[in-house]
Design brief:
Layout: E1 6-10, E2 14-20, E3 35-41, H1 43-53, E4 57-65, H2 68-79, E5 83-90, E6 96-102, E7 108-113, H3 122-127, H4 129-133, E8 137-140, H5 146-158, E9 162-165, H6 175-179, E10 183-184, H7 188-195, H8 202-214, E11 219-223, E12 229-233, E13 236-240, H9 253-266, H10 271-285, H11 298-307
Parallel strand pairs: 1-4, 1-8, 2-6, 4-5, 8-9, 9-10, 10-11
Antiparallel strand pairs: 2-3, 6-7, 11-12, 12-13
């Protein structure tokens, strides 16, 4: 069993501007908000921070702007103990930005401007090849160019490194990427996009997962918020219930779950046990406002697990 898992993350780095409102606005409407929070985000950076807080040794491959947001992001990553050797500062493009509106339900909507994330290239990935090939797991998402993700997955597969994909934002994917994917962690809307059909029940999720597995994905874990996670691999299908908490902000929960799942699998836990622990990480995340600021520490997760 690996005591300190090595995790490589190739993906996005953003600054998050979070606005709290009573409800989501309609077109043309101006609402008075409750509060505003500025923090670091981006699906890649989120997953890197989650993995680091769970005790993993993390290398992050990303592109930020040479601007105050980029400088602050780099400082935050270093404070988390993340290896930032392969975080490149782009001289032309600004740091990626996300505007997040969260209502009282709580539901959210998000607008992302890619900025420097769009500049992440296969060359950046190639320069980080040693970190990727030495990892126990590689985590990727879809907020950076697909050719960089493919380059990373090819390197990982050649080195027998577990590849983990969060297919967000939702988009159709080439068969090559799916064949290189050991673990795919979509939410309900993302798997609907991937397979072109509605997913409302466990049976729907199983049917959709079979489509992805036929296209080459090893294991599919469909997250459905308060309805828990549906797990599908060569051994069959199972369901892991969500952890009951008082949610205040769902932002980042999917990233928390996917990164935690990768970490717990890397230390040798079976899929169901890893998913149960990842559900605790995601649940603790939604009890706080913000994204990276909301991710729990390993001590907090262990305390919650001990109390169950």
């Amino acid at each position: 069993m690996t005591l300190i898992p090595r995790i490589a993350v190739v993906g996005s780095a953003n600054v998050d501007l979070t606005f709290r409102t009573p409800r989501l606005p309609t077109p043309g409407e101006t609402l008075t908000g409750h509060s505003f929070h500025l923090g670091m985000g981006g699906k890649g950076a989120n997953q890197a921070v989650v993995a680091a807080r769970l005790g993993a040794q993390v290398s992050f491959v990303a592109c930020i702007g040479s601007d105050p947001f980029g400088h602050e992001a780099l400082r935050c990553y270093k404070n988390e103990g993340i290896d930032t050797t392969f975080v490149r500062a782009d001289e032309q493009l600004p740091t990626g930005t996300a505007a997040i509106i969260v209502d009282d339900l709580p539901e959210n909507c998000i607008i992302v401007v890619s900025g420097a994330n769009a500049g992440l290239s296969p060359k950046d990935v190639s320069e980080a090849s040693a970190a990727i090939q030495d990892a126990d797991a590689l985590l990727c998402q879809l907020e950076t160019p697909l050719d960089a993700t493919l380059a990373a997955f090819r390197l990982a597969r050649a080195a027998s490194v577990r590849t983990v994909l969060t297919p967000a934002p939702s988009t159709e994917l080439p068969d090559e990427l799916l064949r290189l994917c050991d673990l795919c962690v979509p939410n309900k809307s993302e798997i609907e996009t991937l397979v072109g059909r509605k997913v409302e029940s466990h049976a729907d999720a199983e049917s959709a997962a079979k489509v992805l597995r036929k296209r080459g994905v090893g294991t599919v874990v469909v997250t459905m918020g308060s309805r828990g996670a549906h797990l599908f691999d060569k051994d069959g299908a199972t369901h892991v219930p969500a952890v009951s908490v008082e949610a205040v902000d769902p932002t980042g929960a999917g990233d928390a779950f996917a990164a935690a799942l990768a970490v717990y699998l890397a230390v040798g836990l079976p899929l169901r046990d890893a998913a149960r622990r990842a559900s605790v990480v995601a649940a603790l995340t939604v009890t706080r406002i913000g994204t990276q600021a909301a991710f729990p520490s390993l001590a907090e997760v262990n305390e919650r697990l001990a109390a169950e």
